[in-house]
Hints:
Blueprint: H1 3-25, H2 28-48, H3 56-64, H4 68-83, H5 87-99, H6 103-117, H7 119-131, H8 135-138
Amino acid sequence: MGTGLGLGFFLLPAGGALSLTGVITGNGTLIGLSWIMWLLGVLLLFARRDRRPASPEALAAAAAAGDARAVRRLRTLALAARGEGRPRAAERMLRQAAEAGDVESMWELGRLVQERDGTVAAEPWFRMAAGHGHVVAKRLFREGGTLDPDGTEPL
């Protein structure tokens, strides 16, 4: 969600609250300000409604350039693709996000590979996520770094 869209969603109820306060207290200035807030909120929402989401390719390029927001959006698109039954697209986008350093994408890629090929094939991704501080991934490894799939003896 872009800043304009989020601000638009904030201004509408805030304008309503301000208007209600103005009516209750009889303060015409508050009512006037509420109309300004409503107008700005509606304008921001309409200004953003025609924006198309960035393509996975554009997000991958921005993620590779270090744009953290693009990395998160790429991961979100990947998880949506996974939920829609498009595991190849999901894996491609998760790899791009993981290569950009996104720890959560490393974990999610491990889960995707685990579903397809088993825990042993997913171990490198889980290990990478654990090495970058992913709390759940850390539980998969015993002291000494051996895989502990049930998480009974974490690091």
